[in-house]
User: Fold this.
Amino acid sequence: MKNRDLQATWKYHDGTKHSYWSIRKSPHFLDWANRPLPFKIYPKIEPFSMPQDLPQTGVSVLSAISGTVPSLGTDSVPGVEDLARLLYFSAGITKQRAYPGGEIYFRAAACTGALYEIELYVVSGDLAGLEAGVYHFNPADVALRLLRKGDFRGNLAQATAGEPAVAHAPATIICTGTYWRNAWKYQARTYRHFGWDNGTLLANMLAVSAASGLPAEIVLGFVDVEVNRLLDLDVRREVCLCLVPIGRTSESSLPAPKEAPALGLETIPLSQREVEYPAMREMHDASSLESVEEVNQWRAKPPVLLSSAQTGEAVSLRPPPEEDQPKDTTEQVILRRGSTRTFDRAASITLAQLSTILDNATRGLPADFLEHSGAQLNDLYLIVHSVQGLKPGAYFFGREQSALELLKEGGFRADAHYLGLEQELPADACADIFFLADLKPILEQYGNRGYRAVQLEAGAIGGRIYLATYALHLGATGLTFFDDDVTTFFSPHAKGKSAIFLLAIGRPLKRQPQ
Ligand SMILES: Cc1cc2nc3c(=O)[nH]c(=O)nc-3n(C[C@H](O)[C@H](O)[C@H](O)COP(=O)(O)O)c2cc1C
Assistant:
């Protein structure tokens, strides 16, 4: 089983670390003439336009991300409007701006480099307004394209070893990653970005799903080759990352798995030429599950219980009561979100605001790799610059205690500037939230696929932090970082952990009128 050869993850992870010198020595430059197309286009398939004038859910984003919205009961079957809402608010185009290199179509969820390498597909039975089939979603024209006609949900049930959420879902959304579209800029580090960018998108998808009263969860346990084949992916270029079953039906009979022959469908090339980074494909292969037995074993793993006893001075989170928290709806907040480009260094946020963000964003993801809803693979560490009610310093977020433990007191703006790849954003923010994970026990338990889970979880919680921050009319941005320096900064507490993800939050600098 390749998944158990853990050296593969360490080789990839260590080989894609950023350091002061790796950045300076890299000869990589952006070849604008060869910039990849941001959309997957099937030129010969007729589009099926999705409805665009959708009824609003009216559900506050904070309740949608914190899992406090009740679902619709035993039978909750999405219709075409629900699917359209889910797809648009996860991956749809929400803004458009002209740049010297061309037009950039910004999407609902944050994505490294605005390169949008995550594609979405739908595998559904017959739904109100949509015939059973395997579809690709193109955000450029908000349309589905039918790749296979008929009900292929039995294939997914088989590939996931009968995962109940998949077997009972009227529709499943599948997320894939397209290597070159992101590797054009980020080279082999793109495999980490798959998890991050898929994660932010999933935060939106799960929020919209909850707001629509539809159960949904992240499924990482599946036989890779079977799902890739169903979507007819050219796996040298694009691979399935996760499944999200949507809704639930009590109907117990699924059609038997069907043959899924190669389709050889034409797609428009992304660039004139593509550069291969074998390290990514090796990481993907090494974390692939090869049989139903392996999926079953993978899923049966007990949870990794990671908890750190609190030793230092701690400040309890103080979120205001739910009725006093902002009620901005899921759709409003997703449309408002856009990464902050400059933070106001003179501004501060309150402990109540930081508490609202952390509390709502970390209540646990619905995911098959987490045994119970409160479990989490990543630990959160913070550098606090200007939060009223908190001393500036470095903190560990004890989720179980719902408290921030002071690791060291001091002004660390210069350190944050350095750790965040010498960018101004983490230095000017009010707080920087670092995700670190103890990869050793996680990999021992889950194999290399644990690495996918860690990156994806960080992206999804990061995406929820984005949403909570914008619900409060504050700003946030994802950031990249110097891996080992982050661990050193938070050590001895973080000794042995790996840096996974970084997000800065604060107040956007208001532009002065010209
Ligand atoms: C995981 C992650 C890392 C990011 N890293 C950086 C970064 O290092 N520097 C930066 O300026 N923006 C960074 N961004 C912000 C992206 O550039 C931004 O999300 C993208 O341009 C899309 O714009 P939007 O978020 O406003 O929709 C990051 C975003 C994510 C999700």
